[in-house]
């Protein structure tokens, strides 16, 4: 990797690597007791066009934990992140979708965005108020670019509130890009951290992450509503399951 190498969004990879390394070293201790299941489902994935879908409990701890787990698994870790040396061999084409409003809130979040944020405008809420905004085509295009380049993490509920409905935007992304879709279910993050996921509230809470097998999706026959339902069930946010 050249010092001047950039990713598809123009970010210098050497800076991205340094940001993730620093964040990883700082945050590793808070995730060392994370109970992990299913990392065998990561090691068999291709290098690109993979979409991870997950329930959402904090703004930043969820994605940070996934970066730890995914990189550990790629480097041979089996349901563990104990060998921190994986931080020296990072997969740099991992991205995560986040609300533009959140990622531009301050200096810290702007720094965190360099770790791989694809900032998108919410279509239903802004500054705590309900809105009805059309989907930004540039946002959709950026997600597609990221999938062409690598892996993308998204939280299809678009909020940290439990049982919130899955937004149809994720289903449209799936229909348009036909990625491998890997569900991830996390528990205990809401109770362990503050809402932003930056401050530890309770060290004694059991935290778990389950990486499931990729979904079986008929991209041509299944409707948007079918895919929304499948997403909701797979991340265990359907009250009826």
What can you see in these coordinates?
The structure is a single chain. The mean pLDDT is 90. This protein has 9 helices and 9 strands. The radius of gyration is 17 Å and the shape is globular. The protein has 241 residues and is an alpha/beta fold. It is 36% helix and 16% strand. The strands form 2 sheets. It has a 7-stranded mixed sheet, sandwiched between helices. β5 and β6 (129-130) form a beta hairpin. α1 packs across α3 (61-74) and α7 packs across α9 (224-234).
Q: Which strand order does the major sheet show?
A: 1-9-8-2-7-3-4
* Rg on CA atoms, Å: 17 Å
Number of strands: 9
Order of helices and strands: HEHEHEHHEEEHEHEHEH
- Low-confidence region ranges: none
Number of helices: 9
Mean pLDDT: 90
**How does the overall form come out from the CA principal axes?**
globular
Gap between N and C termini: 46 Å
What share of residues is helical?
A: 25-40%
Taking the sheet with the most strands, its summary is:
7 strands, mixed
Portion in beta strands: 15-25%
Question: SS-based structural class?
Answer: alpha/beta
Name the descriptors.
single chain; 241 residues; alpha/beta; 7-stranded mixed β-sheet; 9 strands; 36% helix
Task: Itemize the secondary structure elements and their pairings.
Blueprint: H1 13-31, E1 35-37, H2 40-43, E2 50-54, H3 61-74, E3 94-99, H4 100-103, H5 107-113, E4 117-120, E5 125-126, E6 129-130, H6 137-149, E7 151-154, H7 168-177, E8 180-187, H8 189-192, E9 208-211, H9 224-234
Parallel strand pairs: 1-9, 2-7, 2-8, 3-4, 3-7
Antiparallel strand pairs: 5-6, 8-9
